[in-house]
Amino acid sequence: VKTIGVLTSGGDAPGMNAAIRAVVRTGIYYGFKMLGVRKGYNGLIAGDISEMTARNVSDIIHRGGTILQTARCKAFSTEEGMQKAMSISRAFGMDALVVIGGDGSYRGARDFSKFGMKVMGLPGTIDNDIASSDYTIGYDTAMNTVQDALDKIRDTAYSHERCSVLEVMGRKAGHIALNVGIAGGAEVILLPEKEFDFDKDIIRKIIQGRNSGKKNYIIILAEGISEKIGGALELAKKIEDLTGIETRGTVLGYIQRGGSPTIQDRVMASAMGVKAVELLKDGVFNRIISVKDSKIIDIDIDEALSMKKDIDQDLLRMSNILSI
Ligand code: ADP
């Protein structure tokens, strides 16, 4: 390997810039030529590629989003698109590619490796929904953003003795909702991974809380369950109709994807970026960088994609004890 490309793909996440910086600087440190690919796999197909220097990644470690920008690319899922991307990569002399993104981006990278590209995946998603890794870049920042919002909502909910329903990101995974639900003292935590009964798990809990003297109620839900029971606004109306308690819904939305990354996201992104390039230097490729038991490891890309991740059942159990 002489020339390494780097791109960000799928949903953006705070800390992606720290990862780009680490990949570029480590590459330059070891004498590689480094290429930045813009807008995910689209940039590979369009040739939106340019050389990166150590100075190109100055002053970005503290910034959210991704300086390379990101996108979803339909064309890359086709054989024709992959072939084109491979031709363009060859034209730029790129012989390895670091992909910072989620599971979908890994699938793209795995397929691309079949065309001869040496790939390396870094976990970048706020949802922490990558099975091979305990931790993903952006997760900590997103949780802190949600925590801040929940604390503010709690202040006003208490003042008015209201019930508040907060909808957070997580289409398939409720890691953010579960952790912030515990950290913010939510009465009810609704996750895609957990079955629940509207009357028993929500209405009864609120009424029991009122009977025991609670002054406010927080319900946090991951967006994935809104298909089952409606989003925060619909749920708020249903709760108000049944309990008579004034209830307000808030959908937090894209605020969760932005912001300056936390120390944890910056350090993890930096360390994983260094590891990705050091492996390429040692002739290791088609791996996914992951965190297991607080250690940074690498896993075969096919193996990583076949893994499954569950919500922390013990934490879920404890959240029920703490919310009485
Ligand atoms: P994430 O990486 O955050 O999971 P997506 O699932 O949107 O985000 O995937 C990002 C991009 O990866 C897609 O737009 C597409 O270009 C590529 N991709 C996703 N799934 C596949 C697949 N099965 N085969 C090839 N490429 C894929």
TrEMBL record:
Cofactor: Mg(2+)
Any GO BP annotation: fructose 1,6-bisphosphate metabolic process
Reaction catalysis annotation: beta-D-fructose 6-phosphate + ATP = beta-D-fructose 1,6-bisphosphate + ADP + H(+)
Main location: cytoplasm
Residues annotated to bind ADP: R21, A22, V23, V24, R25, R154, G185, A186, E187, K214, K215, N216
Keywords: Allosteric enzyme, ATP-binding, Cytoplasm, Glycolysis, Kinase, Magnesium, Metal-binding, Nucleotide-binding, Transferase
Residues the entry annotates as binding ATP: G11, R72, C73, G102, D103, G104, S105
Pathway recorded for this protein: Carbohydrate degradation; glycolysis; D-glyceraldehyde 3-phosphate and glycerone phosphate from D-glucose: step 3/4
Record-listed Mg(2+) binding positions: D103
Residues that hold substrate according to the record: T125, I126, D127, R162, M169, G170, R171, E223, R248, Y254, I255, Q256, R257
Domain Phosphofructokinase positions: 4-280
Superkingdom per UniProt: Bacteria
Enzyme Commission no: 2.7.1.11
Active-site positions on this chain: D127 (proton acceptor)
UniProt keyword DNA-binding, yes or no: no
Pfam families noted in UniProt: PFK
Keyword Metal-binding: yes
Stated family: Belongs to the phosphofructokinase type A (PFKA) family. ATP-dependent PFK group I subfamily. Prokaryotic clade 'B1' sub-subfamily.
Subunit structure of this chain's protein: Homotetramer.
Role description: Catalyzes the phosphorylation of D-fructose 6-phosphate to fructose 1,6-bisphosphate by ATP, the first committing step of glycolysis.
Protein name: ATP-dependent 6-phosphofructokinase
Species, as recorded: Ruminiclostridium cellobioparum subsp. termitidis CT1112
